[in-house]
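Quick one, T. Sequence first:
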Amino acid sequence: MSRQLAALMVASGLLLAGCATVSDTIDSINPFASAGPKMAPLGPLTATADVRTAWSASVGKSGDYTFTPAVVGTVAYVASRSGTVSKLEDGKLVWKIDAGQPLSAGVGASGRLLVVGTSKGEVLAFSTENGKALWQAKVSSEVLAAPVVSDDGVAVKSGDNRIHLLDAGDGGRKWVYQRSTPSLSVRSAGSPVFADRYIFVGYPGGKLVALAIQNGAPVWEGAVALPKGATELDRVADIVAPPVVDGRLICAVAFQGRVACFDMGQGGAMVWSRDLSSVAGLAMDSRYLFVADDKGVVYALDRQSGSSLWKQDKLKNRRLSAPVVQRGLVAVADAEGIVHFLSREDGSFAARQKTDGTPVRAPLQMLGNAVLVQTTGGNVSAIEAQ
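Structure tokens:
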């Protein structure tokens, strides 16, 4: 495969793999693919959990982008490619605005501030109370990952892998962090993560980096993946999804790489790692680490050791979302807009619920006791299971 074609595939939002299996791997994780490995059929299900759609709303399509909703208390904030931003509470529309230009990433929000981004690098802030425009800032390239809002500022990851920390009050630049990255990388919608005094960011080449909130200086970095192979395509080993944090433990997973956990209390010392490839992402609770790999297999790993506790392989090639933990269940969504609920204890199927039939690319969110799902077709649903 030529470098020009590989670059075109990156620009088109496709995900890259080793030359021998490029097309199959790309199609298996690209929700718009019309060919490639066939999705595993869904067999009969004897439900062991009750599920219902508490509410659903139409909020606008995602296009070729990933729009992750933001949850603040009982409120969901959602955006669409066309530029609409909506505030929903208990499924009822509180307000809806037009940002005035197409958007390219999901929503970051706090109690007072809502932030979205565009493919031209514009960062737009609005009041959560009434949707009034508050400020506008510019970053170095397109915004593909939902901004993250905290008391320390607004963290924005731009498409050139720079991290910008903006002042939440007026959008002024506090600092920018950049580092060299490989010439080929996976187009990432993974947001930074605030934890303790740091902002954690996953990078192309498999590095997980901790930046000091105060000045953006790198404090430590961990190797989640080690690029290997003879070609640039073989050596693509990128952290695409956000890391997850619980207490002192931070974990991340890389495409064509590994899943690894680090101890923040020990200066980022690695606790464990194991080979596993995923662009979807992780979920973690008090005992387990859950991950959906690129082939559609869902794993439960012991968070302390990385040992396998169970796996569910009946969803192969269904292009799964990142999992989310809901009480005693683990939920993942697929390219047909179906949300699958698995037993937390053994991975068996507990229930499933349909949405609008279009792919779910954004990570699932918890909204109270419900799983919040945004599809590429523009449907947002709150699904309750017990």
